[in-house]
Predict the structure.
Amino acid sequence: MKARLFTDGGSRGNPGPAAYAYVLETDDGTVLDARGEAIGVATNNVAEYSALVAGLARAVEAGVDELEVVSDSELLVKQMRGEYKVKNRALQDLVLDASRLARNIRSVTYTAVRREHNELADSLVNEALDAQARS
């Protein structure tokens, strides 16, 4: 199965209250799963990678064999493509987790987009952050 994984993460403050979201959809646009989750206090980059790890795990579970990961985090995209080194210790563990999961999928590509092209994942992050702020 061919699919697209839209990921996003955010924190209010850096670090601060953080959340991630992902949207997994088939090639024809059918949404297989869309989820946003608060993760406590974290940096924006940790939230971005948490979205990737959770989304890749869901893609593996769904039996996806060809995946395009779409993110508005240019850092994440370039690090996962191997164009940038991962120097931050907290991110290194998340990159390892993401890489292990990605090996279970025949083909994974990474595409950077502007935030406005990642609207659903972005809105799910904000909903999770708003819910966290209310509790």
